[in-house]
């Protein structure tokens, strides 16, 4: 009589905790890459404004925090809740915090990109377009976080979940298209520079399409 619940428990672990565990492993490896990029930035971009440096530091800290939240969620489900089927029926504080931290990081990253776009193009409406998409995504994520706090034992709110995912994908595509336009307008008479710009444009578009 006890086998069906435990079979369901095992299936939930393999379908949810398994991917979370894999993401933690990959995230741990990428933390070194992100840390190296941050150190390189602070070492060779000392002329950047203080606001930009604070944004980069903020994004770096959020990435580290996001990684530790994922590890904590795995620990709670697999160690604290070991052998307890009911442990997966309730969201932990780490699960809830991951949503907000992730989209706060996305908002900070898009703030950096919007600033860079304004510096390169001097067209404020392009930056506004990037930030509008980021703020809409953050609003859906904030709404989702609030509903998860209010009802941690039920499925996450569909409006908040799909709204955040869809607007995140759209805002990423908008940002990639704007970056491509700005880079394309800065073409040079030198073929080597144009080849580099073309590679950056293709990388930006492909990254947006593949990751979303």
Q: What does this molecule look like?
A:
The chain is an all-alpha fold and 212 residues long. It has a domain at 1-89. It is 84% helix and 0% strand. It is built from six helices and no strands. The protein has helices at 3-44, 50-80, 93-121, 124-150, 158-185, 191-211. Helix 2 packs antiparallel against helix 3, helix 3 (93-121) packs antiparallel against helix 4 (124-150) and helix 4 (124-150) runs antiparallel to helix 5. It is globular. The termini are far apart. Mean pLDDT is 76; it is low at 1-9.
Chain-wise SSE layout:
Blueprint: H1 3-44, H2 50-80, H3 93-121, H4 124-150, H5 158-185, H6 191-211
Helix pairs in contact: 1-2, 2-3, 3-4, 3-5, 4-5, 5-6
By secondary-structure content and strand pairing, the structural class works out as: mainly alpha
The shape, in one word, is: globular
Biggest sheet overview? none
Q: Give the overall pLDDT as a whole number.
A: 76
Low-confidence runs (pLDDT<50, min 5 residues)?
Answer: 1-9
Strand percentage lies at under 5%
Please give the radius of gyration in angstroms. Answer: 20 Å
Task: Specify the number of helices.
Answer: 6
- For the secondary structure, the number of strands is 0
């Amino acid at each position: 009589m006890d086998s069906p619940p435990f079979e369901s428990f095992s299936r939930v672990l393999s379908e949810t905790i398994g991917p979370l565990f894999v993401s933690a492993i990959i995230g741990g490896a990428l933390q070194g890459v992100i840390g190296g990029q941050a150190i390189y930035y602070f070492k060779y971009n000392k002329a950047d404004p203080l606001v930009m440096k604070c944004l980069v530091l903020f994004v770096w800290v959020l990435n580290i925090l996001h990684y530790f939240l994922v590890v904590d969620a795995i620990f709670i489900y697999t160690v604290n809740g070991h052998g307890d089927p009911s442990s997966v029926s309730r969201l932990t504080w780490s699960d809830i915090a991951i949503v907000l931290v992730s989209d706060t990081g996305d908002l900070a990253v898009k703030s950096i990109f919007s600033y860079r776009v304004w510096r390169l193009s001097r067209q404020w409406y392009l930056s506004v377009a990037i930030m509008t998409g980021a703020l809409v995504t953050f609003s859906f994520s904030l709404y989702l976080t609030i509903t998860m706090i209010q009802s941690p034992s039920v499925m996450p709110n569909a409006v908040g979940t799909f709204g955040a995912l869809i607007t995140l994908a759209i805002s990423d595509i908008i940002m990639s298209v704007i970056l491509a336009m700005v880079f394309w307008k800065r073409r040079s008479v030198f073929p080597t520079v144009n080849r580099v710009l073309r590679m950056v444009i293709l990388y930006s578009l492909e990254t947006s399409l593949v990751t979303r």
